[in-house]
Amino acid sequence: MSERREAGRAASYRPDIQGLRAVSVLAVIAAHYGLPGAQGGFLGVDVFLVVSGFLITQLLLAEVAREGRLSLRDFYARRARRILPAATVVLVATVAISSAVLGAAAALETVRDAAWATVFAANVRFSSVGTDYFARDQVTSPLQHYWSLSVEEQFYVFWPLLVVLCLVVLGRRRGGRRATWPLLVVVAGGVVGSFWYAVELSHVEPVAAYFSTPGRAWELGVGALVAIAGARVVAPLGPRARGLLAATGLVGIALAVTTFDRTTQSRAEFVAVPVVATAMVLLAGLRRPGPTGADDVPLAWPQRLLGIRPLRAIGDWSYSLYLWHWPLLVVLEARYGTVSAIARLDLLLLSLALAALTYRWVEQPLRSPVRLPRWRAIALYPASVCVLALTCALGWSFAQHQAATYGEGPPVTLEGSGLVTDSRVDVSPDPVVALVQASVYAGERGRPVPRELRPARLELSESIAGVGECDYSPAGTRVVCPRGDTSADRSIVVIGDSHARMWISAFERIAAREGYRTYYFVKPLCTAADITVTDPAGAAPWGDCDAFRDWAFDQVDALQPALTVVASTAPEGDVHTAAGTAVAADDPRRAAVMQQAWTSTYDRVAASSDDVRLIRDVPLADVAPGTCLTTGEPDLGDCLFTPDAVHEAEADVSVRAAAVAGVPYVDPRPWLCWQQRCAAVVGDVIPYIDRSHLTAVYAGLLGESLGRRLGIWTV
Questions:
Q1: Where along the chain do its domains lie?
Q2: Would you say 633 and 410 are in contact if contact means Cβ atoms under 8 Å apart?
Q3: I need a surface site. Which of 18, 375, 461, 602 has the fewest CB within 10 A?
Q4: Are 191 and 155 in contact (CB under 8 A)?
């Protein structure tokens, strides 16, 4: 790189931006590590995006002004030097640590996440997983924070192309300089369009909105606007006005971090506060060349404060610090449970140490264009993919090997468990219940886990009952898919959330034997109780759930089924009464409000159904059986669990409402638990996918028992 280019970069260096980066990453860590008063710290990521859009655009504009063109090869070489080394090191380390510390199932999920992060598509992965209720009970991914890196890199695939089009092709020369107005117009339009898209998407698909690159592009675009037109905006401002502008921006960021919470994380109208505030800080620090080449306006005090040495140091480490802090916390808590405040402080210090080392020995050496010329820098892309592909392959193989070594015992049987010879036990005449008794009995005596299990330990996430073409997860989906015996003249309708969906394999077995058409109006996270719930991102009342439930009730009216079955778990987060009052999960009024909502549902479907039944929710496990069965060297007793008391109380609300409405209910607990102990393995079958959903295999085996309890399985 020429001396002129190096000098230009040195002149454009802004210590205050390094301080702003430090503030951003510390806010994110404070939120992730649970520091009181920093519940909105996740908005530090939005500050990062604005700063990134500003800096990258500033570099591109400077290159076009200096060279009259833009080298895409140089741009992507710079991105490779900046992003790939540290990202690759942390990915490799996270896969290795997860494989060594976590169970095979969790390690395998980390491998999958690493594969998506390798190709900068982690946001796509987590958007799809985040909208899947069956994945919500699983261990949080130690690589989830790579979503923001993926958003950035996806944006920068096309951003330099747009700059070339607007400046080099459309911008005409004026006194040896290129006009920036075409780029300004295009970026301003893009910011408005992206912001509008983010607002609209957040109201119907909040999880998708949070991870969406088009829905985040406006934040990078705001930073780009500051780089394009900011100097003209602040040119008339003196030190006092600039100081006031920067101070206002810092106050805006601080207020967002300390007063916002997770209910605002995907709402663009709220995120606009820290985004605009960041733009104000960037504007205030823009340098205006004077006659000697130096800025003739002194730096305002907020810029000087942000530029102090400790903040600059953390700002230098901020990228590596962001990468390290999350997997350290997630892996530790996945292995040992929630850690203390002292342990989190230790993790923060470890994160700082790792970040400093990564910055010194990985980032800095490989950022030098002298040590790593353009073509070698570009070669980092395939090199990183190869290293990570090998890492993922090794992690995958190790997880498979671990899973293959777990369990040396035979399947649990009634006779083999020793239950029938114990005179203190009354063995149930129901064979399913008796096998559950035997499985719990064997677990209490430390019997080994069966070698062969159904489904396989590492295939639990795939043992989900299919919904065919009727996947109602996307907002606005309204189709009807008859299943079962489609020629039958009588039908069964199942209404609820994913806890209704998990019974599909049982109902399909019933329908095939007894001759029923079946309809499954099941939407994940959307309770069957007739009440407004909070959307999946915890951001606002979920209108699409209300609309779907009303539509499902209309379908019951049209179909006039022989049997309508209601199944659902308690809603997460707040529920909202007809008067608009939000009722939190720990509100004493919650039970009465939910009982009324359940009663409303029973009344609405009873008018159009020959029979209505409730399936009470299944017990909630403290740890997913699949995780327990693939961690350490467990026996069956290690993975027994006691039903969660709060969850049981919430399930009882639906039963009380059913009793008032005269609706019979099916209690599935005897098919899972005995004497308040629940089995992670029943016979040779794993009953749970995660902490609260039945596997399709086990639900299918319960078809006859369920049919008999519903009164529709003939002898």
A1: 3-397, 462-619+643-668+687-710
A2: no
A3: 375
A4: no
